[in-house]
Amino acid sequence: MLRIDADRARFREIVRGRIRTDLKRYLSTGELIGRSGNHSVSIPLPQIELPRFVFGSNDEGSGAGQGESGESGDAKARASASGQAGEDPGLHILEVEVEFDDLAQMLGEALALPKIEPRGHKTMETESGRYSGLRVHGPESLRHFRRSFKNALKRTLASGQWDPARPCVWPEREDLRFRDKKSVRKPDSSAVVVHMMDVSGSMGREQKEIVRIQAFWIDTWLRSQYRNLEVVYVVHDAVAKVVDQHTFFHLRESGGTKISSAYELCLRLIREQYRPEDWNIYPFHYSDGDNWSARDTESCVSLLRDELLPRVNQFCYGQVKSAHGSGQFKKDLDAALPSADKLVTAAVGEKSEIPESIKAFLGRGR
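and the corresponding structure tokens:
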């Protein structure tokens, strides 16, 4: 068993090394997202299978040079050369499962991401590690012998059945007590991620794919930093609403764009459900930079400066390049809030720029 464990550990290190080498490529593609599970992700690693001999039949008349049967042999050779079947080695894919914690560690190493210092602490009820409580039901393995015998002795004395000459005590079902873990309330770091995205007609499939890849890696990193993480999805055109994950990445509207509607909904969520005293708050907004008017952009700046930035750990705006988008909103934010320490903006023109955007969002350790 020791040799098997050593071989398995060595294989895992080889796989981790290969993943580290190709991590930049995975950061720019959606390969991993479709293979993600609850606790791990399947990573496709290419491998080449070594060539090997394949023995055929030795029937007479199956090859060329056999007189009249030569035609069939030629035909067979031509069929093999036509691409219908072959015996050459091919490229195969090996699926390797990697825990999200390991993947997050590789991401942190690749992008030199600092650890996050939590701000808010939410008091949560958790089970302690010691069996310091008692209950009346449970498995025999957790039966508390002393307490059960004491209860049986009390019942025997109270009922007048105690005989000093024959001191026997037989516990009954109601006398039994079992060890139990006590639930205690203790502070635990909690975080909420609010992903907001423009789903108007100018945001196409390519732009949403970039957002999907960014959101996957952002969530992977933040889950490694917080024990309790909630994710909220908000879509907006002229009106904002909360949706599920599938709708967030597949919904497309044809209306205009009013960014302030998303910021107002985000503020309402923070006030009603995610108090800054209890939660570490991370809003991420994705758009192609178009807004319906300069007046609404002024409203967005006001909401950020006066309401959102004082309440959140960090507000991130990611602008994806679109053939129909002007890209003006990022310029307006940078010009209006140049010294806002909690505001981070980044532009992504194509998938290869995703790693730089992720590093900009997560590289401050907030």
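(Above: one complete record from the training split.) Residues 136 and 174 are 8 Å apart (CA to CA).
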